[in-house]
Design the sequence.
């Protein structure tokens, strides 16, 4: 298993969702919930060597159902999921604000900075987006440049384009 993505936690569990329109997903769970999601690309997606604890099975099933619903076009905000992202207080604030952007809508990095209470922090919110451990669920793909261009996306611009098109964003 690769090095832990989670700070201050002794155990990480890896689960995979092999079939999505954007390829397989790796899901990383802490004992408290879903901590990270990665688009796995074309390579193998290893399962955790450790047995998944029973209390996580319900969380895993909820994630599987919500992600499946999302990809079939059901407008979901993933609010029912138990999440455990790790980050600085500023990053956590940005990620919380990202979850308030509705399906199919976009905002600029500047608007996101304003919403987190620091209108001059466009670059800082861009950096927080870049290290978002839960892309898709914490929808950083809905943040675009002020001129309407896509800007960046840690999971690739083709995926960002696909996600925005899937949600019907202009």
Sequence:
């Amino acid at each position: 298993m690769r090095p832990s993505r989670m700070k201050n936690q002794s155990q990480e569990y890896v689960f995979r969702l092999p079939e999505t329109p954007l390829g397989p997903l790796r899901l990383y769970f802490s004992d408290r919930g879903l901590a990270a999601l990665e688009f796995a690309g074309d390579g193998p997606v290893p399962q955790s060597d450790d047995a998944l604890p029973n209390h996580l099975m319900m969380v895993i099933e909820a994630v599987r159902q919500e992600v499946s619903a999302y990809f079939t076009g059901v407008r979901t905000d993933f609010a029912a999921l138990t999440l455990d992202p790790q980050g600085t207080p500023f990053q956590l604030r940005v990620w919380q604000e990202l979850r308030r952007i509705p399906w199919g809508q976009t905002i600029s990095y500047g608007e996101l900075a304003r919403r987190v209470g620091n209108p001059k922090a466009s670059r800082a919110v861009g950096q927080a987006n870049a290290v978002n451990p839960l892309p898709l669920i914490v929808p950083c793909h809905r943040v675009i440049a002020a001129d309407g261009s896509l800007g960046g996306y840690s999971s690739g611009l083709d995926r960002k384009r696909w996600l925005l098109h899937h949600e019907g964003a202009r």
The radius of gyration is 16 Å. DSSP finds five helices and five strands in the chain.
